[in-house]
């Protein structure tokens, strides 16, 4: 999934002659110094691994410094991987380049190797962008939490009965996938959440942050990690802050239920999280925890 509506969606391509398939007619735009989530499956049950390179210097060689992803595959399932595009500089260059994805059985894939017996290599086209988007100002002042993944937690004294903005500036301690999780409990009323946003520089990391698809999908996962809850979270039109929809969550008879969404992060980069919350009433049976982990 890339920028400005581009993506490479290329499943069930079958086996190609001599294990190579030139698919450079398919292209995707990616921003430098940004990480992306992708998914891959070899449709084969054995232990296999994928590597991806981008020939940033266009010398028709995929140097090890040009590797942007590596992942062991999970049998025939779609396996998610993180692709890290370096900052423009000594390695990454803007413009059109060839991207090579190579899957190998047993061996670590090598961009041009014939040493592995089973596998396949596809070439694609990427357009590396280096725009410096204006950094959006969060809707309320962001509290810096460093690399601490607990953004907000309260179990008493919660009096926010009108939509209230919360914002946090968080620096990722690692490169990979991170999950934003809201755990909610509310007796006798409901939590409402709307307009959830996470910006990395100018790039919005979340899907469906305002719930305007009318459902959790795309992006969000609703779950009950502490067992069955009464009136768990739903996306509905009862009390949106903006648009037509928000999350309404009145989970009772359980510790909490949760709604979460995962996204790709780079170590050392700062992510600005903001959201609006309110509770239908105040009282002692109301708790919330918002984490990145
Ligand atoms: Ca190269
Ligand atoms: Ca909304």
TrEMBL record:
GEVED domain mapped to chain residues: 50-127
Top-level taxon of origin: Eukaryota
InterPro entries found in the cross-reference section: Galactose-bd-like_sf, GEVED
Gene3D superfamilies: Galactose-binding domain-like
Name of the protein this chain belongs to: GEVED domain-containing protein
Source organism: Adineta steineri
